[in-house]
Every structure is written in C-alpha cells, then in structure tokens.
Amino acid sequence: MDFVKAFVCGGLICVLTQILMEKTKLMPGRIMVILVTTGVVLGAVGIYEPFVKFAGAGATGFGNVLWKGMKKAIDEQGFLGLFTGGFTSCAVGVSAALIFGFIASLIFEPRMKKE
To answer: How confident is the model at residue 99, as a pLDDT?
Structure first.
C-alpha cells in the first residue's frame, strides 16, 4: 500500500505542475521556484511533515529539505544558520545535479527547440 500512496501523491503533484505548465504562461524555472517555495512554507508551518509520513517517497521535496537544514542550522548557529543551513543540507543533491548535468552536456549535443 505504501507504493500506491507514494504513486498517487507524487502523481497528483505532477498533475498540478503539468496544469500550471499547460494553462499558464509561467516558465518551467518559475514553476520550480513555486514548488520549492511551497515546500519551504509548508515545512515551516508544520504541514509538510505529516504529508511526508502519509505519502512516503511520493512527497520528497527539495524545499522541505532546505527548510529542515535551515531550521537545524538556526538552532545551532543562530542567525548565520539562515544562510548556511540550506547549503549544508542539500549539498549532495546540488553537487550531483551539477556533475551529472556536466556529463550529459559532454555526451549529448544541445540544440534549441524550434517552434
């Protein structure tokens, strides 16, 4: 049942994102910022954690990871943790994205989409 809940919850997030992409003129980068910011806000007000417990892998979110890292760093370092916490909690994910993006750019030839 855990797989079904993860699939349905993750799928609903994808459906809502696809609706935003199709029905608005928002660019994908802005939609990603909306998703990350929403995860941070929901984590800050305490809504995201019960959702993660329910949805499991279907609710993993970059914004929530940023929030947890910032909260921990603020508790340990004070105001400075506001700036360092997100970087330390997401360093592996961001590094992997940069490295794999670079490798993909070496393998594939980039080209602009023609409309």
So the answer is: 93
- Joined together, the tokens standing for residue 47 give 């809504």
**Percent of the chain predicted with pLDDT > 70:** 97
φ/ψ region of 38 (left if φ > 0, alpha if ψ in -120 to 50, else beta) reads alpha
Query: How far is the C-alpha of 58 from the C-alpha of 5, rounded, in Å?
Result: 7
Tell me: pLDDT of 115 over 70: no
Residue 6, token pair as written in the block: 């993860």
70 within 8 A of 81, measured Cβ to Cβ? yes
DSSP string across 30-87: HHHHHHHHHHHHHHHTT-HHHHHHHHGGGG--HHHHHHHHHHHHHHHHGGGHHHHHHH
Residue type, 39: G
8 Å CB contact between 58 and 7: yes
